[in-house]
């Protein structure tokens, strides 16, 4: 037998005990004999919860998604439910996406809950992640689980945990549940289902979810405006096909063209390199259909339908993909305008965004005398704000990674409602002789032209994780003093919770939970943030630049100036 480090061997040997089935044991013995590299990757650590739950490659081992790692998670949650909600019948909702093994793994999770006396509401087939958040609250459940890896590659799957309020796990529940899971032996998992505790759900929840989406994302555009508006939609082989076409129909939008080659849910995502609406390539087929149909807008959603890509026609009539910051700015302004029109802005409302998103959201909120709360990356933190500030009304909020949450009926980013809202904005603009893009430029004239860009560096495996760790260490040990000729005036380190003003040398405390994020601000308003991804083997660099825009006619020139500045920054940071 090849040499295996003692600590790794101890972890591997656990999976060769009777708690694991014969197929699993045989697979691991094969790895020991013939693939030590894969063996180490599979067992060198436990799969961890990140910003979007637990995601990983499917396979056998502690660092993989499989029935045992998810069974252990579920058993730990069962134990925790019995501790924090004693003497009641616990209820849980479970959903799953289009990925390989999602349906099978969802049933495994349901079995473990049912074996522990928990009443399970299991969706009969794949559904969008935001519908799980909605169903959890609608059915008065204690928690919810979604089997999804969002837009990760096909070999991935994942496990997202939601709590009573419909939001994802946040402190202190997350640490308490992780501790409960860590103390469990695999032999303690109850896999034998009690089918009497499992109820299948479907259309009855779909109907109320769709009606709630329309209530929150549609604002009574004139019928003729809706009839005149031309939409292309792609689900990118994902779950939104189960909900969004019907949502559009009930909202009064009938001029809809679906990308047929991407309609069928498929965990291989055969027509795209990556089912990620952030990437223009993912929407290539939709953009081609938009030209054939002379569409006004293109909507594409990721596999679990919590994020959306939006393409609209620019000043030259060309379809272009907007970034998440641009759609977030437009949605936030539209909602604020709507609330103001309805006399609902009373000084007790707020919008929300994240530390790596565009600063323009905060500027918009100030223009409406409304509070803007800025939190860590991840919609679990935006959802937590609603719990933390029960006396304030939440309007809407988003982050740069193409997600938006309209109102609090769903406590996570929701492509169904956000897509409807984007269409509503564009339809109203067209009806008055304008367009989504022209209205965006008008916002830039009023509040300043902001432009953002994201660079993600992929670093896979053990070596990649170490490289990312070292890059963050180096950034902290050798902080930048200048970026592209601009002096750095402020550095925020969310790991140490310290913001340091490099001019006054004053240090202040950052009042948010600790996170591995570093943000630089320059004298001219440039903002550079870097952080390791919480869901992918990547380190991300977020760049934001801005300038004044006196009138719409200067837009193209000013945008080109910001593009050139962005390129110079990327070159200066050696990111190209």
Automatic annotation (TrEMBL):
The keyword Magnesium applies. Its cofactor is Mg(2+). It comes from the Bacteria. Residues 1-31 form the KilA-N domain. One of its GO terms (molecular function) is phosphopentomutase activity. Keywords: Isomerase, Magnesium, Metal-binding, Phosphoprotein. GO terms for biological process: carbohydrate metabolic process; purine ribonucleoside salvage. SUPFAM superfamilies: Phosphoglucomutase, C-terminal domain (SSF55957), Phosphoglucomutase, first 3 domains (SSF53738). Belongs to the phosphohexose mutase family. This is Phospho-sugar mutase.
């Amino acid at each position: 037998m090849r040499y295996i480090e003692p600590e790794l061997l101890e972890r591997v040997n656990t999976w060769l005990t009777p708690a694991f089935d014969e197929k699993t044991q045989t697979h691991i013995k094969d790895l020991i004999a013939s693939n030590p590299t894969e063996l180490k990757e599979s067992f060198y650590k436990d799969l961890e919860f990140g910003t979007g739950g637990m995601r990983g490659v499917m396979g056998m081992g502690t660092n993989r998604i499989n029935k045992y790692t998810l069974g252990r998670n579920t058993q730990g949650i069962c134990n925790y439910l019995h501790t924090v909600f004693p003497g009641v019948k616990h209820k849980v909702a479970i959903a799953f996406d289009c990925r390989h093994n999602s349906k099978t793994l969802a049933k495994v999770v349901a079995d473990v809950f049912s074996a522990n006396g928990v009443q399970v509401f299991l969706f009969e087939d794949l559904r969008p992640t935001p519908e799980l958040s909605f169903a959890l609250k609608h059915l008065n459940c204690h928690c919810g689980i979604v089997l999804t890896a969002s837009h990760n590659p096909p070999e991935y799957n994942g496990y997202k945990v939601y709590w009573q309020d419909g939001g994802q796990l946040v402190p202190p529940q997350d640490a308490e549940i992780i501790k409960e899971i860590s103390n469990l032996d695999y032999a303690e998992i109850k896999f034998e289902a009690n089918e009497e505790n499992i109820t299948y759900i479907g259309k009855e929840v779909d109907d109320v979810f769709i009606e709630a989406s329309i209530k929150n994302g549609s604002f009574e555009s004139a019928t003729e405006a809706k009839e005149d508006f031309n939409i292309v939609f792609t689900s990118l082989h994902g779950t939104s096909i189960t909900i969004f076409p019907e949502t559009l129909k009930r909202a009064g939008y009938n001029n809809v063209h679906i990308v047929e080659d991407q309609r069928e849910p498929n965990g291989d995502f055969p027509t795209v390199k990556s089912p990620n609406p952030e990437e223009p390539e993912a929407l290539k087929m939709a953009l081609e259909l938009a030209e054939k149909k002379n569409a006004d807008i293109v909507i594409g959603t990721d596999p679990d339908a919590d994020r959306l890509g939006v393409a609209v026609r620019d000043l030259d009539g060309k379809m272009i993909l907007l970034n998440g910051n641009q759609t977030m700015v437009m949605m936030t302004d539209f909602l604020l305008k709507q609330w103001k029109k309805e006399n609902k802005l009373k000084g007790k409302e707020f919008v929300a965004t994240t530390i790596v998103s565009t600063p323009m959201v905060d500027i918009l909120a100030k223009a409406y005398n409304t509070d803007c709360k800025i939190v860590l990356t991840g919609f679990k933190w935006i959802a937590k704000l609603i719990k933390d500030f029960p006396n304030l009304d939440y309007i809407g909020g988003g982050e740069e990674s193409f997600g938006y949450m309209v109102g609090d009926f769903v406590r996570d980013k929701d492509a169904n409602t956000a897509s409807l809202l984007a269409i509503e904005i564009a339809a109203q603009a067209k009806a008055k002789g304008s367009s989504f893009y022209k209205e965006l430029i008008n916002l830039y004239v009023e509040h300043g032209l902001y432009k953002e860009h994201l660079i993600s560096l992929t670093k896979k495996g053990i070596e990649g994780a170490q490289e990312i760790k070292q890059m963050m260490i180096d950034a902290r040990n050798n902080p930048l003093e200048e970026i592209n000729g601009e002096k750095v005036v402020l550095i925020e380190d969310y790991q140490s919770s310290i913001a340091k003003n490099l001019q006054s040398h004053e240090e202040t405390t950052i009042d948010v939970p600790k996170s591995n994020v570093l943000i630089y601000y320059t004298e001219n308003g440039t903002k550079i943030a870097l952080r390791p991804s919480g869901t992918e083997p990547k380190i991300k660099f977020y760049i934001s630049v801005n300038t004044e825009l006196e009138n719409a006619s200067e837009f193209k020139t000013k945008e080109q100036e910001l593009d050139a500045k962005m390129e110079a920054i990327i070159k200066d940071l050696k990111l190209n």
